[in-house]
Design a protein that fits this description.
The structure is a single chain. With 207 residues, the chain is mainly beta. The chain folds into two domains: 89 residues, Ribosomal Protein L25, Chain P, CATH 2.40.240; 80 residues, Ribosomal protein L25, C-terminal domain (RNA Polymerase Alpha Subunit, Chain A, domain 2, Beta Complex), CATH 2.170.120. The chain is built from three helices and 14 strands. The strands form three sheets. The protein has a seven-stranded mixed beta sheet. The protein is elongated.
Length: 207
């Protein structure tokens, strides 16, 4: 696919809230054994990025100096999903990286066409590959689902050359289940236990 490019600037000496009010997103570029770099991105330019930008390599342009990177995390406001900050991970073109790409469901399941219910457990897959081998998507062929209760696992996905799956290969991606009859009682909903707030994740690197 065509290379995704994004202009960035060195971070101004303003508070993050002031930058956001001015239409700029605070960001950090880190990884590859180099010091983290504080930068800023035009909010409108970032908003124009295609969805593929979240699972592909991006060329960050800082005054003509290009850095290959991937979007590692995006912090948003929970209410309106407005972007608060971005973390970019530098990419070493000579090293493999791990990232998530969409699953593209192709074909028609005979079991689903005959009245079964198609249940998609995952719409994305975590893969490992070289930066220049990142696929736009990974195909999942629904035609292999012929009978009720047939399932496709991560190990059944059609992978391009030089790409491997990180998810457990035995985990179900999609399956066809029998439709529930009107007289069949719904399974009781169990109350989920109250869990403690999770700890902040450690920053990933591709050293």
């Amino acid at each position: 696919m065509e290379k995704i490019k994004l202009a960035i600037k060195e971070r101004e000496s303003k508070t993050p809230n002031v930058l956001r009010r001015e239409g700029t997103i605070p960001a950090t570029v880190y990884g590859s054994g180099k010091d983290p770099q504080s930068v800023q991105v035009d909010a409108r330019e970032f908003g124009r990025l295609a969805p593929a930008a979240y699972s592909h390599m991006i060329e960050l342009d800082l005054n003509g100096k290009v850095t290959n990177a991937v979007i590692r995390s995006v912090q948003r406001v929970s209410i309106n999903h407005k972007v608060q900050s971005i973390q970019f991970l530098r990419v070493d073109l000579k090293k493999k990286l791990t990232l998530t790409v969409p699953i593209k469901f192709i074909g028609v399941s005979a079991a689903a066409k005959g009245g079964g219910v198609l249940v998609e457990s995952f719409q994305e897959v975590e893969i490992e590959c070289m930066p220049n081998d990142i696929p736009d998507f990974i195909e999942c062929d629904l035609e292999k689902l012929v009978e009720l209760e047939d399932a496709l696992h991560f190990g059944d996905l059609k992978l391009p050359e030089h790409v491997s799956v990180v998810n457990p290969i035995g985990e179900i991606v999609v399956k066809v289940t029998a439709p529930r009859t009107k007289d069949e009682p719904a399974e009781p909903v169990k109350a989920a236990p109250v869990a403690a707030a999770p700890a902040a994740p450690a920053a990933a690197d591709n050293k």
